[in-house]
Amino acid sequence: MEKTGKWRCPLESTFFSLTPKEALIFRNSIFTQIHEIVFHGKGGYDWETIYNMPIWLRKFTWNAIANHYKEENQSSQESTVDESIANMRAAGAVTKKEVNVPSYVTKASKK
User: Fold this and answer.
1) CB atoms within 10 A of CB 61
2) Could you give the CA distance from residue 80 to residue 72 in angstroms, rounded to a whole number?
3) How far apart are CA 83 and CA 90, in angstroms?
4) Cβ proximity of 88 and 95 under 8 Å
């Protein structure tokens, strides 16, 4: 068989291909991202729509949902701290209770 021009071997990877290990990682990250958008989109997206969505739009949607939940989490933490401080002030300061020490001494019975 004569070689003409380029060497063609099905086992040799080309410039734009992924190795099987890289392909597995890439595929897993895509499906994870699709699942997270569908799950955290609260019913606004279905799997097929996200799968067929252009990559730039899927990344934009992913970042928008992530930013929304970060802001929501941050505001809930701030309001929780403010509410806790307000509740403590409304209840009054915690005071030390004095312990009543008995004036008599009791002895335990020995068996």
Assistant:
1) 17
2) 12
3) 10
4) no
